[in-house]
Amino acid sequence: MAKATILHTKLQRTVGVFTCPSQHKHHTKYIMCTPYSLTFELTKENRSKSRFAITLSFSSYPCRCRRNHRRLCIRRLQSTRSSEVMGKKRKEREAQSDDDDSSKSRTKRTDSDKLVVKPQLLPSMIKNKDKRSAVYAKIKHEKKVEKRKNAKAREALESRALELGEELPPKKIPRTIENTREADETVCKPDDEELFAGNDADEFSSILTSERAPKVLMTTCRFNSTRGPALIKDLLTIIPNAEYYKRGTYDLKNIVEYANNKEFTSIIVVHTSRREPDALLIIGLPNGPTAHFKLSNLVLHKDLKNHGNPTSHKPELVLNNFTTRLGHRVGRLIQSLFPQDPEFHGRRVVTFHNQRDFIFFRHHRYVFETKENKQIDANDKSKDTEDGKKQLKGKIIARLQECGPRFTLKLTSLQHGTFDTKGGEYEWVHKPEMDTSRRRFFL
User: Sorted alphabetically, which PANTHER family does this protein's record hold (predicted)?
Assistant: First the structure.
């Protein structure tokens, strides 16, 4: 292999080293040839007088001239020339940026009223990980300090308004998905006479007006696991007047007919898939409707930490955020499962909270505790400093204790009448093409 060494003509120092794949003798007008060396002359663009001489020294005798190797050597020479030019441009850019930084630091304020604003340095613009994390932490700290400063200023304004007897400054409402939902024509209004007329004539009016007492039949799917009956066991403690029947091999239509004969008002079917309850079917009797829910995030009573034990009192029912016509109908279906005369001294509350079309179920009981505050009487302390007299003052604190179970429901379909997969008419069915926006809700 032949090595090519680049030498500076004036300074006589090595600029770079090339390796030639073979030993050849070149004949071009750009090359000065000797038996054992080749010399190229280059001129820098910024300095016309300085020249570079490139000498290719061969370690052995020269070979015969070949056109392909001559092209290869000339191509390497051109790449060397372009790298020199690129290095010169890079140095010019760096020098220009240094000049700009120095000029900006010297003239931070050009005029008395006009400020020179530097572009904000974002963490995503920094390639070094340590510097990027440091800049991000600094920006986060600045935001935190500014937030604390605004909170103190708002508290000062509120305290000053209370002292002067003025109106408090309006509180800022956070922007959420719920309060920026898409406009829906089916949202119920408090002065909707048609809605109240429909409530008096629907399937649940006899139960909600206490003309009939609710009576619920609970069962599972045909092939169930231990988690299905365990969920039903927890639901039996929540819903009064509920009875559990083993499914066996009976069809659901036969179960509906049997429940009508026994004067049940509702049927709840717990569906199981892969040994885990995944669906809930609620059928109103005798004329429907039938609601199919997807069940998820199930936690049984025994799996809850620090859970309470519910009593046999009738619970208080809380329904939240069922605002549309469809949500109002689903809420009345859920309401028909519970008696309308809750026993408040039992301190039980059952909550169905709708948020973004997900219905969260929780079961709690009220707990009233007396917190004792130890205070020392000042008069007794002055008389006897060693044994201070302690007075116990009780303060009653109310809190909630979860009894379980907890789970999440999502409505998939609402059908007219009782369960019928072939000839049933659907009031509403959820389809994937409905999910076109995160701010579109149906309940």
Answer: RIBOSOME PRODUCTION FACTOR 1, U3 SMALL NUCLEOLAR RIBONUCLEOPROTEIN PROTEIN IMP4
Q: Is the pLDDT of residue 36 over 50?
A: no
- Tell me which DSSP letter residue 46 carries: S
CA angle centred on 412, ends 407 and 418, rounded to 5°: 100
Cα distances (Å, whole numbers) of residue 429 to 155, 183, 192, 404: 49, 20, 25, 30
Q: Confidence band (pLDDT; 50, 70, 90) for 393?
A: low
Paired strand residues for 400: 366
How many whole angstroms separate alpha carbon 339 and alpha carbon 226? 29
Give residue 396's pLDDT: 86
Terminal-residue alpha carbon distance, the chain: 81
Identify the DSSP state of 315. Answer: P
Number of neighbours of residue 4 by Cβ within 10 angstroms? 21
Residue 248 has pLDDT above 80, yes or no: yes
Cis bond before residue 405 (omega within 30° of 0): yes
Q: What is the SS3 assignment for 175?
A: coil
CA distance 341 to 71: 100
Q: How far from 374 is each of 235, 283, 377, 384, 391, CA to CA, in Å?
A: 43, 56, 10, 17, 6
Q: Structure pTM?
A: 0.63
Cα angle at 121 between 118 and 126, to 5 degrees?
145
Phi, psi of 424 (to 5 degrees): -80, 145
Secondary structure string (H, E, C) spanning 395-422 = EEEEEEEECCCEEEEEEEEEECCCCCCC
pLDDT band at 232 (very low <50, low <70, confident <90, very high): very high
27: left (phi over 0), alpha (psi -120 to 50) or beta: beta
Of 333, 359, 350, 302, residue with least CA distance to 415: 333
Helix ranges restricted to H, 290-405: 325-335, 378-383
Closest among 194, 296, 256 to 424, alpha carbons compared: 256
Name the region of 299 (left: φ>0; alpha: ψ -120 to 50; beta: rest): beta
Neighbouring-strand partners of residue 52: 8, 42
For residue 181, give both structure tokens. 């939902």
CA dihedral (370, 373, 379, 380) in degrees, to 10, reads 90
Q: Are 242 and 218 in contact (CB under 8 A)?
A: yes
For the segment 201-216, the average pLDDT, to the nearest whole number, is 91
Amino acid making up residue 183: A
Give me the chain's average pLDDT, please: 77
